[in-house]
Amino acid sequence: MTAPALVWTSAVELARAIAAREVSPVEVVQAHLDRIARLDGKLRAFITVTGDAALAAAKAAEAAVMAGGPLGALHGVPIALKDLVYTRGVPTTGGSKILAGWMPEADGAVATRLAQAGAISLGKLNMHEFAYGPEGVNPHHGTPWNPWDAGAHRIPGGSSSGSGVAVAAGLCAGALGSDTGGSIRIPASLCGITGLKPTYGRVSRAGVLPLAWSLDHVGPMCRSAADCALVLRAIAGYDPRDPTTSVLPVPDYAAALTGDVKGLRVGVLRAAFLEASDSAVRGAVEAAVEVLEGLGASATEVAIPRIDLAAPAVAAVLSAEAYAYHEDRLRTRSADYGADVLERLRVSAFVSAADYLKGQRARALLRDDVDALLANLDVLVCATTPLAAPAVGQQQATIAGAMVPVRPNLLRFTRPFNATGHPAASVPCGFTAEGLPAGMQIIGRPFDEATVLRVADAYQRATDWHARRPPLGAD
Amino acid sequence: MEPLTIDMLRALATDRGLALTDAELATLLPLVNANRALLAAVPPLGDVEPAAQYRIL
Hints:
Strand content of chain A: 5-15%
Number of strands of chain A: 13
Helix content of chain B: 40-55%
Strand content of chain B: under 5%
Radius of gyration of chain A: 20 Å
Largest interface: A-B, 28 and 26 residues
Number of strands of chain B: 0
Low-confidence stretches of chain A: none
Radius of gyration of chain B: 16 Å
Oligomer: heterodimer
Strand order of the largest sheet of chain A: 1-3-2-4-6-5-12-13-9-7-8
Structural class of chain A: alpha/beta
Shape of chain A: globular
Mean pLDDT of chain A: 97
Largest sheet of chain A: 11 strands, mixed
Structural class of chain B: mainly alpha
Order of helices and strands of chain B: HH
Mean pLDDT of chain B: 92
Largest sheet of chain B: none
């Protein structure tokens, strides 16, 4: 394979080709490092590139292949980590100035598991500071450039903005993100890639900087559902260092990708979701539902009765937990925070214990509502975000004829499922007239990532939105 | 729930060890009050318990 072909090859295919000795992990890693060197000056997806370590790991991976021993599922596949995953001996900044130069003494659980599966880390990815923002901007490391608009600087979505950009632009075959209010799914939607927020408790958060402990999820961001399935299998499972992880066994997600969704019951969230979306996004999702129906699934319009509880529940819980984590630094290092995150954290200081518990109680009711819907349905679908990528700095947008603030609307469709903990994926499902990607969100039952991925994969077998390449760096 | 005044917010900020200027307090006040209003609008939740509970095992 040529270098351009290597960087657009899926993680599944790279793993197969490396194991079959059709391509060397050294070639694969070098092709990605060359592309990072060529494009990341503008894209700003990476905060730290660990090129030497990646090449050394690639040479060891090549030797392992030639030795003929057992290989991990991601052997030799180049990935990258959001810069809040602890990496031993490698700076972990959380996208902040405050943690500049800090090097953890041990890897986070997900970094360890990816390495055990044979994946090779290319470095640490840019993000919204301390994961506290859905735009993905960063005043300290530069705001990543959404590669779907080569001319205008549009937000990639956040907080896992570097992960979204790096995967979309072919700088790595897959990445890890974290998601507290939509931080995997929002950049996945805005950057035209596939992202999965697993069920709360499916993937360990040990060794991951927190934003809000009870809402944080770690998950894969890749170019396809099949790649997400591969990465999820590698990182999922019980971890004694994270007491919220489940002891439920981890299924073989790839085996669930049968392409068959005949008879699957799909609930379409229209009220408060599709009805609150930009017409281009709504049209793309409605067309995607028709594709699923064409594949044999049945679609029914449904609504979450107490959806209005999502915003206050997440606001209270996220604010209180984020403030608790940052309390000391807010007193001593306030000048080192970026302006937007500092403002958000300061507002969070005034959430009372009663407010926090009100949020946690509201959250229980919302979870019950979603569980009730999924008792009779296999998945729910809606748009991931109500609008495509706005420009950096854009505060307002027109949706359904009304001028609305960008920030809360980016979070509007994703945060309910952080509150409930249900697994939720975003898959590309079309483009706006400006050529910007739109995403469809697929929500499943707790610990049924397999069905979410099966629907996403079946959709991707029938469409090619996920295979399109952005104009910035297309080759 | 009554909105906070700037003096009330200053007192709360001081209690939390946050040294905020008048300009900073003025910027925060509408945001804090909007957050409080959002939570105040939550309807009665009955006897539902919080989603996060202590578990010994």
